[in-house]
Amino acid sequence: MTNKKNKNRGRSMDFIEANGVALRCELSGGGDRTLVLVHEMGGSLESWDEVAPRFATSRRVLRYDTRGAGLSQKVRGELTLDTMAGDIAALLDQLGIAGKVALAGIAVGGAIALHFAARYPERTSAVAVGSPATGIAAERRAPALERLAKIETAGMAVAVEDSMLNGYAPELRGDIARFERFRTRWLGNDPSSYATIWRMLAAAEMQDELARLRCPVLVIGGSLDRVRPPALAQGVARAIPGARYAEIRTGHYMAVQTPDLLFDCIDEFLKSVSV
Q1: Pairing assessment for the beta strands 2-5 and 11-18 based on DSSP bridges
Q2: In order of start, what are the domains of the chain with their CATH numbers?
Q3: Which of 80, 95, 89 is nearest to 15 (CA)?
Q4: Side-chain-side CA neighbours of residue 211 (13 Å)
């Protein structure tokens, strides 16, 4: 393990080998409660830059680059949500974090968080997910896989304009510097790893496990999300017993686009369930 102390007190960036893969993570804050933040497809732990510090004033916050993303080890071949959830469990073990944790995830990160809750109910206190990507409709799979083949051949640039138009609505680009930083970071993804993660999503079938969840769950829809519109988020909420649904004026990459709105929504939920 390599440990680099950040200038900010109580914050450390680590590179940890866990569950057979090298993962970059950051643990900040302190206390008995822990919140795990899981970023969207094409994102990295930086997606939470304006959210994590606010949570860290009252709890430990673990954020990380999922395998295949950011500075974590790249992936090829078959990948499953089970493996992704296992990465979180292994990170918690390596960091000595025992007991239950809350999780918050965006898009595919939401699917990973929900799968963790289903696989490790004894380790999960609550889950909050924004525009959770819990699967792909059958009619969308063929064109999506064709698009992925182009990305693998020509790189991320062939898909960036469509991805930004649908996921980062022009109405949310008032802070143009923030948008340009995110767009440029998105372009830096490894195309093969991105395609591998997307194929994992295309193969996901989560309906049965969603119905078995018993921890408190909040599903958040983005009114400006054109990748996964609010109706899809509402469908996930309906599939989970007792889940709450909230809608905010944001898009698909909500942790980046509207960090204040997202923090307030998740924070209110966690406080309401005493987590």
Answers
A1: antiparallel
A2: 20-273 (3.40.50.1820)
A3: 95
A4: 4
